[in-house]
Every structure is written in structure tokens, then in C-alpha cells.
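ARCHIVE CARD
SHELF: 3
SLOT: left
DATA:
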Amino acid sequence: MASDKNLDFEKELKELTPLIKKIASNFITPSITADELFQEGAIGVYEALKKFDSQKNTKFSTYAYFWIKKHIMKYVEKEKSKYKLNDKLFQNKIDENPKEEFTSKSRISFPETMPKPEKQVLDLLLNEEKPLIEISKILNISREKVRQIKEMGLRRLKIKKTL
């Protein structure tokens, strides 16, 4: 019976792939790739399969839409609020007028003691707003390695994670 559920999941995932991609396309940001959002959408399909009641006269795709979107939005919110930047990080960027907002030309500067790979990754991620996959191509290293370097750099900057 467990293999039947796997077959149902694979079948439904294949059928709902265009729906997942459509929903995910609305939430892609420089730091969140389409693949990451697709994975969250797939988790939504899995949860919808577990909770779907065929007796309620509803199409599965209609029911799954809610769970797909819920998981994608939850992931986006988690990523947005994951790091709270210290005010010290931006201290060098504040003009004489404290009410003035940062412009797109404002750049985050990093400590001189920070290792070069961490500076490169964080500069490309925070200042250039490049996604991890693009940074991995620029630096010719794997996306996972870029993610690890990013995490080390953020810890070094004492950026607080929220859970």
C-alpha cells in the first residue's frame, strides 16, 4: 500500500508540475531559486495527498492549490525573516540625514578580517542581489559550497537568525 501512495504522489506531482511552477514564479527572488520553490510546492502536493478527502466532491488540483501555495509562502517568509541584520552592518552607510532611506546604490561593507571567499559570496548575494546558483557559476564552485560559505560569513557578521 505504501508503494501505491508513492505512485499516486509521483503521478499527482507530474500532473501538478505546471501549477507548482505557475505559483512559484510569483515568489522567485534573487536569493530564492525556482528549484527551491518547486521543492516546497512538491511538499505541498504531498501534504494535500495525505489530507485529501475524495468524498467532499472537490477536484484534487483545487484542493492541492491551497497546500502548494501555503508551503511556498511559508518558505518565502522563513527566508525573508531568517536573518535580522545588525545595525552595525549598515552603520557606515547612513548619511547625515538619518531619515533618508537607503538607495539602491548603498553597499554593505565587510570587515577586513573576513576571509576573501566569504566577502565575495556575501558581496554578490547582498550587494549584487545574485541568487546562489548564479554565484556558484561566477565563482566556479558548487551551489552547496556557496550556501555554506554564506552561512559562515553571516555567522561571522553576527547576524541573528530567527527561528
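SLOT: right
DATA:
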Amino acid sequence: MKNRLIAFSALLAFLAVPLAAHAQGKIGVINMNAAIASTAEGKKAMADLQKKYVPRQQELERLQREIQSDQEKLTKQGPTLSEEEQGRLTREMEDKQKLLKRSTDDAQSEFNTDRDEAVRRIGIKVVRIIGEYSQQNGIALVLDAVQVPIYFATKDIDLTEPIIKRYDAANPVADAGAPAATHPVAPSPVKKPK
């Protein structure tokens, strides 16, 4: 279904190019993802999200260290421990691994939801700026370079930078100089003892 939608979008774009050219309009290209992420508001939103999830990331890292410690204890002391104690430590470690996996999945899901909401909110405003810019500059068609395959485009039709500048001017943000952050990285899985 998604491939059909992309193919249909490409077909519409292909058909729209001659129509737009015939109507004496210009065509513009934008990298919508880069535009959203590069606005001052986008940078601040990502920095705020990263800050929001730091405590959860630290908790996941603490749990990861506990699991590694338990695994080392079981490996080093295993031969001297009773079978009952080995079984108890193994069950505790498995419970912690399950908790780590669930907590990591939950944190990633919540982060993705928050990030998607921020992108949606900013994206709505970016689309409005694109519409205004296009009308003011006689642009009949704007394509998202990420959504529609574009095999060649000159740099003078790339609207990403002018749109970012207009967006930032229309939507000033306090503390906009904060660096963009990436999503929290899940700790690497711990191998079960054999």
C-alpha cells in the first residue's frame, strides 16, 4: 500500500511538472525533515526531549550495570554457590533483564510519541511558511525531496534554507542555541549465563 502511495505521488509529481511549467510557475524542493529539525524551535524541542528523558536513561543504565554485576557474580562465585543460590541469582537476573527490556521499550515508545508530536506541531507551521513563501515567489509546486524521488534538482530551487530562516523569524524561541539531541540509546543487551 505504501509503495502504491509513493508511486502515485511520483506519478502526480511527474504529471504536475509539465503543468506547472506550462503555467509559468516555478518548482521548489524542500527537505522537510531537515527543515523541521534545523529550525530554532526544532532544535529546542529535541534538546528539551533529551533533557526530559535523561533520568529514564540513567535508570536504564543503572539497571544494566546491576545485571552485569549479577552476571559477573554468578560467573565468579557460581562454582562455590549452592544450586539453590545459583537458581535464585539466575531468576533475579532474568527478572531484571525482562524489566530492562520492558522499560527500554516503554521509554523508546514514549520518546518517539513525544518526538512525533513535536515534529507534527512544527511541521504544520513550516507548511504554512512554505505556502506563504511560494505565493510571494511565484512557486507553483513544492516537492519534499524525502517523499518523492528527485533525480536531479539545481540548488537554486532548494527552499530548505530560506524556509528555515522565515520560520525562525516568524517563530522566535528562547534558548534556541541548544544543540539538537538524538533519541536515547538503549543499553546493549546482556547475555544470559549458560
